[in-house]
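Predicting holo structure, zinc ion bound.
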Amino acid sequence: MCRSDNSRDNRYRASIYVEGKDGEKILVDAGPEIRLQAVRAGITRIDAVLLTHSHADHLHGIDDLRPLTFENPIPVYANKLTYNDLFKRFSYIWAEHTQKGGGLPHLNPILVDKHILREGFSIGAVHIMPIPVMHGELKILGWKFNENGKCAVYITDVSKVPYSSYLKARNCQVLIVDALRIQPHATHFSFDEALDFTKKIYRSQEGSKMLREVYLTHICHNHSHKEIEYYCRAWMSRNNIKNLTVSPAYDTMSIEL
Ligand SMILES: [Zn+2]
Ligand SMILES: [Zn+2]
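Done. Tokens:
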């Protein structure tokens, strides 16, 4: 797929960048390609980073945000496991003996504790709510964004959504959800599992009123964009699902709420 002529088949690691209407700039995850992705998207400022989990494909580019942290440290929200891993993997940032050189990344890790899990927090006018989900045996976070009742939910690297988290996720207009491939996987939703989750939300009272667009993400290299579009369309007609866009996400994709 990397060599495909269709640019929508060329996939970097999964990440999203959210802009509020007042210019709030929020990044979810910073994988190994984050520098290339940020340059490509013209990102010059970030007000907060939200981490889903500490797997390399979601975290190992975070110190490349360094030039964006010179004026202000960037708060980095993470659950306990991810928070601890951040200090371990990037210990040089906080170690006393580290040579300062051209400047270290100014990251300000913030633990998503019980209070934040319950109430969420705000960056400007964007309210953000963590959504705990399971990635195999690992407890990780999805994220929900709400600006004046317009909501988007981002859940990547998920194999199970607990009921309480489904309740948190279901009232949204846009859902971006992990769908690795057709074949089942121990720690990721397959296409069918992601679409089953979509159907559950779509059929709920809240979902039927609000859900408008669903995008599959974190797609592996087994399937082309076109093939997945076809898969989604066939699923929609089989399940008689109307007034809903369900399609694969692609790099550089922009969604307006
Ligand atoms: Zn992962
Ligand atoms: Zn991943």
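The chain has a mean pLDDT of 96.
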